[in-house]
């Protein structure tokens, strides 16, 4: 199928009012969800997922992608107006956004955040379109040993960079892998931790684990401290961003977008490091570097470009390799699976219409983001006024309905509650949840590819080193572990020296 | 709780989980056919390998915890009244247990109405009337969507049967 044929097939699939309506609704839900402090883009995507079961695959996935895109931008609104990032990725936006709001220039900061977000979004989507197909064609030559080493590398980097320490991330990933062993054995069909219960034989339901890990802990945190997330919203002020200011910040926006694209395409790094790196690069190269941290509009632009640049790029490993780049794409992979689709290189051959339909939808989502974002900036006051102590019980009820709807099974609701407490314990003990969830999803794939490799080679482990691709991933894995371990040792030494100095 | 305490508790917990898995849980709850020629292909191999790595991660956490300064800053979630907060958490746990008991008996809609009310009053909502209204409307709207649009068979109890 030629490129033009693929685009035509994609257009035929999404060229209807239903798809665009879903995308529009998704962006709106995402912006609102991201803007509510205490919710997050992740929770918004997780809670929207059950509503996609009844939809066509493309419509449901577009809805979720809209929520994702909207959620990332929405997080910047409370970051600027009440100094509370709606998503972790918006933390860098506070650095200059909130000082601007204090000076009565919140409208200007939010306007720049929107323009930078949309520009970064377009660049990120174009990068996805350019690189995903190329990477997928390369990945077509992967066999089980190559996939095993790729997934191992992805898990290593996710465990290493998504928390405060490599060991806690590794523990989180190992627990996720252990949980994924529940059910019937993949090769022999024997029981593993099923306790004779038929509900356990198919393994734990992914949606129940996901919503349990990401929505219920927020509810429990609210129960622990019901007055958290209470902040006073600043007024928007009379000044709005001008085209001259956008042009002045354009270099930082483009740089931040490419930083986002690069970091987003590596599984596990996510939007927050990208936003901070983009911000620090903008500060290093700016003529107004002394204003950074005091309300510099270029700082807002760089931070927002950094975090939105990630949004399209995280779909590169998802679509091309079937490996989720972050937690939200892990949820989206769940949506693909529910609709009987398996993301990965074969999807570029078997479901090319869906792939190009998604590309078209993503481009359109940038336009929707601009339109909805402009309205959301002015409407934030109403979102901020939603009483959290009403919102949280509503989220709980939504979780119960959503999880039940997956399999029509009350057992799954129990799994969600149990996983919610596990997730809450993880939050309290500073264990990152992302490696747990991604390991839970990739666990069966990792084990399956490992055992297939062993079957292929007659149990000779040397098959895992059979060619340049496996060597490449092993090298990356070892380098990642060394780099993260060295950073950890330095941090511990630094803390020890600091506490020694304080003692003296 | 300091960083050191977090690290030590996590390490000890991981080590205990690994020992429990290796000594009791895997031999007891993972079955393998007797004719598997190679241990690598056995259904037991993957759980044993993961339990081993969990133990190693636990040891690593304990080792790094020992090297941390004993009097670091506290990292607990802030709360003004920890006693009440623990009570509220226990209340939430009770709501979840009761939900599981009531769901097959009262049905999804009535149970969710009660769950909504109980959790809203547990977090001491300042809008009791809104809470009651939302407690009735939200489960009904969700029922309408899932039962009539998504085609999900939402469980109905003996007391309330909805169309």
UniProtKB/TrEMBL annotation, chain A:
Pfam families the UniProt entry points to: TctA
Domain DUF112: 21-437
Presence of keyword Transmembrane helix: yes
Segments traversing the membrane: 20-49, 61-82, 147-163, 169-188, 200-224, 258-279, 318-342, 354-377, 389-406, 418-442, 463-485
Keywords attached to this entry: Membrane, Transmembrane, Transmembrane helix
Keyword Methyltransferase: no
Protein name as catalogued: Tripartite tricarboxylate transporter permease
From TrEMBL, chain B:
Parts of the chain that traverse the membrane: 12-30, 45-63, 84-102, 108-125, 132-154
Keyword set, alphabetical order: Membrane, Transmembrane, Transmembrane helix
Top-rank lineage group of the source organism: Bacteria
Domain DUF1468: 14-155
Name of one Pfam family that matches: TctB
Keyword set includes Transmembrane helix: yes
Protein name (Swiss-Prot/TrEMBL): Tripartite tricarboxylate transporter TctB family protein
Organism: Roseobacter insulae
